[in-house]
Each structure stands twice: as structure tokens, then as C-alpha cells.
Design a protein that fits this description.
mainly alpha, three-stranded antiparallel sheet, 5 helices, 3 strands, elongated
Length: 117
């Protein structure tokens, strides 16, 4: 996320530099418009990627009431390392669902483990 914020800052800084260092009236209006459009598209793409990162898994499949986390999200959610997460999985303490051979963890199961049930 820090990298994405840095990219957004860079894009905004680049726009500011273009507006202040060059006399926009001297630039070809079509070229300036293309440049501004490309920067806007780039910024929208970054925001789209950020939105996808935070989107609950399963929403597109109509499973909005069921939420799964990947390994990194689960480790962060439980405040443990990935190796500890895998160890808990291998010990049978954590159950996972394999989707495309990648483990996904149901948030309700994680909450139940954390509450001791």
C-alpha cells in the first residue's frame, strides 16, 4: 500500500510539474490532453487495484455473506507469522479451503478459534 500511495503521489507531483514548468499554451493541446488522459487512466487503474485488494473474496460469486482470507491476510488477521499459520494448519487447528491449490481461511472459523470455541 505504501508503494501504491507513493505512485499516486508521483503522478500528482508529475501533473503539478507539467503545469508549472511548461507553458501549457505552448504545448500542443492534443498532446497535453493525451498526456493528462494517460495519467488519469493510470491513477484510476491504481485505485482499481487497491479496491480489488480490499474486496472480500467471494463477492463476485454471490457469496457476500461468506468471507475468506488468503494466507497473508489470515496471518495479519491473527497477528501471527505465515510459518505459524502453516504449522497451525498442519496440526489441524486451522481448517482451510483449497481454491486453485491455494489455501483460503473462513473468517468465521478464525473468529471461533480466537474466541476459544
Amino acid at each position: 500500500m505504501k508503494r501504491d500511495a507513493a505512485i499516486l503521489d508521483f503522478v500528482n507531483e508529475l501533473k503539478a510539474i507539467m503545469k508549472t514548468q511548461y507553458d501549457i499554451a505552448k504545448l500542443e493541446p492534443i498532446l497535453w490532453q493525451r498526456f493528462a488522459t494517460a495519467l488519469d487512466q493510470f491513477q484510476r487503474k491504481i485505485q482499481e487495484v487497491e479496491t480489488e485488494k480490499t474486496k472480500p473474496i467471494g463477492v463476485d460469486q454471490g457469496l457476500s455473506n461468506v468471507r475468506y482470507l488468503n494466507v497473508n491476510q489470515t496471518a495479519k488477521y491473527l497477528s501471527i507469522s505465515r510459518s505459524t499459520l502453516y504449522r497451525l494448519q498442519n496440526q489441524g487447528i486451522l481448517k482451510c479451503l483449497k481454491i486453485d491449490s491455494r489455501p483460503k481461511y473462513k473468517i468465521d472459523d478464525l473468529d471461533a478459534i480466537m474466541s476459544g470455541h
